[in-house]
What we know:
The protein is of the alpha/beta class. It has one domain (about 30-140). The protein is about 30% helix and about 25% strand. It has a 5-stranded mixed β-sheet with strand order 1-4-5-2-3.
Amino acid sequence: MQELFPGTTEALDNLSLYKANDVKFEDVDAFELEMEHFDDLKTELGYNTTWSMGEGIMALDHKIFSDKVRVVTYKCIAEMGKTMDDVTWITFTAVAMDGTVGELWKAAESCFQQAKLAIGDWHYFVEDFEVQEDGSLSLVTGS
C-alpha cells in the first residue's frame, strides 16, 4: 500500500512519543499515595496543615475516635528560656464535633491557625492526637 504522504510512517516511527518502549512507569508506594490523597484534600479544603498520621488513605468521614464531641488542645512554646525549665508555654484550643478525620483535621487546622497568628508557629504536619485522662485530645505536630 502506498503512503498518502511519503515518509510519514518512517517519521512517526522515529518519534519517541509514539514508541511504547519509551513509556516508563515508576513504582509508587503506599506512603506516596497516602500523601497525595491528603494533599489533594488539603487543597480542596483550603488548609495550611498537612494530615500526616501515617494510617493509610482515609475519607474525611472515617472515624478514628468514638462519635462524640472532643476538645483538642495544642501546646506550643511561647517563649524560650535559658533551659527547658524556663520555657513559657501557650495552649490553643478547638473543638472536634466527632471523631472523624474531617472534624479532627478541622480542629487541628484551627489550633494551627491560632498558633501561627499568636506566635508564628510553623509546625503544620498533623502527626497524632493523644487521648488525655479527661477525654480531650492533645494535638501532636511536626515541621
